[in-house]
């Protein structure tokens, strides 16, 4: 069973190392980042944590279509070059920490799935800062923001790509998938996607 992760980042120096380490702890073999012209130490922090800079682009404003194109191209190109029989990919934002109940690793969960399953869905749990410090570089943000509430913002961040089948096109921040007409059996409500969009009370971090 093979699991990789791909993240788009923009000025995430305060959280990216924890995000990358979390992905490895969940069983990812490789963690790839796509950098949207970060002006801080995001890329260096991600690489120090073990991530690989797979692509970079610049946009004056946040461009979802461009982001989607780069993320999917990283996955498509890697699958084409390595040609595994199948590979799971985790699509995540730099401030998202997907996890399962009971501490089960995502990789171990995937190994127990019916072979027909090709996607895993979950809901966002938004965390809010309540007191200082709000974050510390390299630390998991849940150490400082343990309180959260479940939203009904569903995502399908885990997709399985199979040799000889069309590329699954993850879109809208992993909220939807273009399947080219193929059936996509999905496990529903399996993931808890812990989300840390607020770096300070009342301030939301938005992609660039």
Record keyword descriptors for this entry.
single chain, 208 residues, alpha/beta, Spore Coat Polysaccharide Biosynthesis Protein SpsA, Chain A, 8-stranded mixed β-sheet, two-stranded antiparallel sheet, 4 helices, 12 strands, 20% helix
Would you summarize the structure shown here?
The protein contains four helices and twelve strands; from the N terminus they run E-H-E-H-E-H-E-E-H-E-E-E-E-E-E-E.
Strand residues, percent? 35-45%
Average pLDDT, all residues: 91
- What is the count of structural domains? 1
Following the backbone from N to C, one meets helices and strands in this order, namely EHEHEHEEHEEEEEEE
| Terminal residue distance | 34 Å
The overall strand count is 12
Contiguous runs where pLDDT drops below 50 for at least 5 residues? none
CATH architecture: Alpha-Beta Complex
Contiguous helical run count: 4
Outline type = globular
- What is the radius of gyration computed over CA atoms, rounded to a whole number of angstroms? 16 Å
* CATH fold-type name: Spore Coat Polysaccharide Biosynthesis Protein SpsA, Chain A
Q: Reading side by side through the largest sheet, how are the strands ordered?
A: 3-2-1-4-7-6-10-5
What percentage of residues falls in helices of 4 or more residues? 10-25%
User: Class, according to the CATH hierarchy?
Assistant: Alpha Beta
- Largest sheet, strands/sense/barrel: 8 strands, mixed
Structural class: alpha/beta
Could you please describe the fold and organization of this structure?
- The chain has a single domain (3-204), classed as Spore Coat Polysaccharide Biosynthesis Protein SpsA, Chain A.
- 20% of the residues lie in helices and 37% in strands.
- It contains four helices and twelve strands.
- It has helices at 16-25, 42-48, 64-82, 106-111, and strands spanning 3-9, 30-36, 52-57, 86-93, 96-99, 119-127, 148-162, 169-171, 176-178, 186-195, 198-200, 203-204.
- Strands 3-2-1-4-7-6-10-5 form an eight-stranded mixed beta sheet, sandwiched between helices.
- Strand 11 (198-200) and strand 12 form a beta hairpin.
- The longest helix is centred in the middle third of the chain and has 19 residues, at 64-82.
- The model has no long low-confidence stretch (mean pLDDT 91).
